[in-house]
Design brief:
Helix content is 66%, strand content 0%. By secondary structure, it is mainly alpha-helical. It is extended, with a radius of gyration of 23 Å.
């Protein structure tokens, strides 16, 4: 029995260590997002709403999607009057699919089942996924270059390039 208890204890200890590591990684990623000019609270709210299966959060989800789409310039800003300046249902479904694909969410349109709306959602999803896959390395490299340039400006010391071996031995 003591060995069986030890097996379960070790598993749970490993789980706790994994949670700590995941929490530290999440903290680092949130700090990176904040450093890149994003509101961390908005990102947390976005994930909470978009990944929730709670039916009470449907209204929150649509509000969050609208705010993000306005901020990113993919839909025109909505006036205070909810019935003015609306985008069409097809545009909203397309944007929903696009965001899901861009963010790597599940490829499953939650609000449509069959018909042309599904086709619109899947086309948006594929477009978002394709854009991410085609650009994430470029965007990440640009952000890293900006960080290196900022650090170089602060310290006055340029880091070695990846092609240079800082420990290379040269003979004279």
């Amino acid at each position: 029995m003591d060995v069986l208890l030890a097996i379960h204890t070790r598993k749970l200890c490993a789980d706790r260590e994994a949670k700590k590591a995941a929490a530290a990684l999440e903290t680092k990623h949130l700090a990176d997002a904040k450093n890149d000019g994003f509101d961390v609270k908005e990102i947390k709210d976005y994930l909470d709403v978009m990944l929730s299966d709670d039916p009470k959060k449907i209204v929150d989800k649509f509000g969050m999607m609208r705010r993000n789409r306005e901020k990113l310039g993919v839909i025109p800003p909505q006036a205070k009057d909810l019935f003015s300046d609306r985008v069409t249902r097809e545009q909203q479904i397309d944007r929903d699919g696009y965001e899901a694909g861009l963010n790597g969410l599940e490829r499953n349109p939650r609000h449509t089942r069959g018909g042309t709306e599904d086709d619109v959602w899947y086309a948006g999803y594929d477009r978002g996924r394709s854009k991410y896959e085609g650009r994430w390395e470029i965007v990440l490299a640009a952000m890293e270059a900006a960080r290196v340039a900022e650090e170089t400006a602060k310290t006055g010391v340029e880091p070695p390039t990846k092609s240079e071996n800082p420990f290379a031995f040269t003979q004279h």
